[in-house]
Amino acid sequence: MIPREALETAKRFLRGNYVLSIIGPRQAGKTTLARLLAPKKTYLSLEDPDLRARALSDPRGLLAELPVGGIIDEVQHCPALLSYLQTRIDERRKPGEWIITGSNQFALQQSTAQSLAGRVGQLTLLPLSWTELQASNHAPARWETAVATSQFPPLYDRELTPAAWLRDYLATYVERDVRMAHNIQNLAAFQRFLGLCAGRTGQLLNLASLAADTGIDQRTARTWLTLLETSFLVVVFPPYFRNRNQRLVKTPKLYFTDAGLAANLLGIREESQLKTHPLRGALFETWVVAELLKAAHNRGQAPALSFYRTRDGLEIDLIAETPAGLHAIEIKSGATVADDFFGGLTRLRTDLGAELIGTWLLYGGKRREERHSTRVLPWSRIGELGATLAISTPPTATP
């Protein structure tokens, strides 16, 4: 088992809260982390249909079997259980007694906000980070390998073929989370929609175009995109915007939280396919964004990431907002640093002035340097960037 960076954050949240909520996509390691945190606690999974039926029909009786707390997995199947859990918590008021997990972001966040406000620490767990792979000697030598392999824990804990595992993962997701939980009848159209989203990762989101290419109406496309967000498969970044500057483009950008999953949906099975693929740069950008999201979440922080694009052509891949100021990040998949990579960052300094406290270029090569007042990092040092952004961002323990 690969040690998780989020472990110490989870322990801190347990010490300070009555409940720890671990949310994230399926197979990201939520259950493993929960059981590692509390190996002696009783474990219940609401994926089990019999247990789920009991939780729905007799929540008090089920909780009575856990007199000193426990682990309740996939609790989004019975959100009403949290109201009964609140009563138990208020009776005992002992930190760290309960751990709950869920793979539906909005459903669980809404339920905990209503029933467990002020009692819960919330941790988002995404697939393995690059620094976790490095620390465990599982890190590939090239970023293309990381993208083609994906970074879900089972691919590193067991002898599995990445392409086959990702195919089964998607099939299970569509069948269990989409058909059963959301009653989508046209699964073929939804799978087509999912593939078209992968083709737009790292790009501006044009919902009308996405709907038209899928053969659905725009309202359905919006609903399906929300479903992908609630399942932690994609994130949608807003543009950086201040009212004083009306030149900024207001269309959001779409990213997958695992670049390997997006690559698999695009038919990419081996790193050699990435060399000339038209979405090579977008997939690399997706990988970088996912790593920065993990760096923040693993420290218990809420990432504040956006992008910068003006109508007159100035584009910056990422803007990271921290209490100390803004960091601007350009992302290039090439292995060679060219002077024209820095033009946008130079112009941005004029636009943002003192708000901008750091500029970065993260690229697909190996050398670390400083050029044009910008810190240049090779892709394999992505952890340094994540740590720097985290230093000036205070942790959050409650939703």
How would you summarize the topology of this molecule?
Blueprint: H1 6-16, E1 19-23, H2 30-37, E2 43-45, H3 49-57, H4 59-64, E3 70-73, H5 81-92, E4 98-102, H6 105-115, E5 120-124, H7 130-135, H8 143-149, H9 154-157, H10 162-182, H11 187-198, E6 203-204, H12 207-214, H13 218-230, E7 234-237, E8 253-256, H14 259-265, H15 280-298, E9 305-309, E10 315-322, E11 325-332, H16 343-352, E12 356-363, E13 369-371, E14 374-378, H17 382-391
Parallel strand pairs: 1-4, 1-5, 2-3, 3-4, 11-12, 12-14
Antiparallel strand pairs: 6-8, 7-8, 9-10, 10-11, 13-14
Helix pairs in contact: 5-6, 8-14, 11-12, 11-14, 12-13, 14-15, 15-17
Question: What can be said about this structure in brief?
Answer:
The protein has 17 helices and 14 strands.
Write down the domain tally.
2
**Secondary structural class:** alpha/beta
- The average pLDDT score comes to 91
Helix amount: 40-55%
Give the number of helices.
Answer: 17
Order of neighbouring strands in the sheet with most strands: 9-10-11-12-14-13
Query: What distance lies between the first and last C-alpha atoms, to the nearest angstrom?
Result: 29 Å
What's the β-strand tally?
Answer: 14
Principal-axis shape: globular
User: What is the percentage of strand-forming residues?
Assistant: 15-25%
pLDDT < 50 runs, ≥5 residues: none
Radius of gyration: 22 Å
Main beta sheet strand tally, sense and closure: 6 strands, mixed
